[in-house]
Amino acid sequence: METRQQGLLDSEPLREADEDLASEGNLNYSILTEEEREEIHQELAKLEEEISTLKQVLTSKEKQHADLRQKLGINPLSDFKNNVSRGWHDMQTSVAYKKTSETFSTAGQKTSAAFSTLGTAITRKLGDMRNSPSFKSFEEKVESTVTNIKTKVGGTEPGGSFEDVLSSAAQASSQDTPTHNLTDTSERPC
User: Is 24 inside any structural domain?
Assistant: First the structure.
């Protein structure tokens, strides 16, 4: 009796029952008569022929399927689009998507309300700040500075806007600076 290799397999020797099973397989083949063997070979050949025929039919059906899909304008890209569209629709109709959408909607409404409240509070604070004595003092200083600039730049005319003062200052400075035409070659020294 032979022993099995060590490792993954057990190292116990083959039992007599194992040897009997192995020899029975060989005996079953040798017990068959020549007539039974011929029958089995014919059955095997018939099955192989049926398999071949089925493969040919399947190939023909697959070609017919592809032709019909082509006539309908169905191609892999349209299949992909349909699958994505169907998946998107399925996702939108899912309970999880609806709950998430509702949660985001509620969060958006609460955030909008919070910003509205914040805006109102900032507006109120700016109004309070503008009415404060510090801001009034700052505003008076800016007005007196603008009046002084108007007097110095624009003459003794009272009134006018800040933009008027700036434009008159710009006009005065442009009149004070002489311009030279550098493109005129007749006045250039050689």
Answer: yes
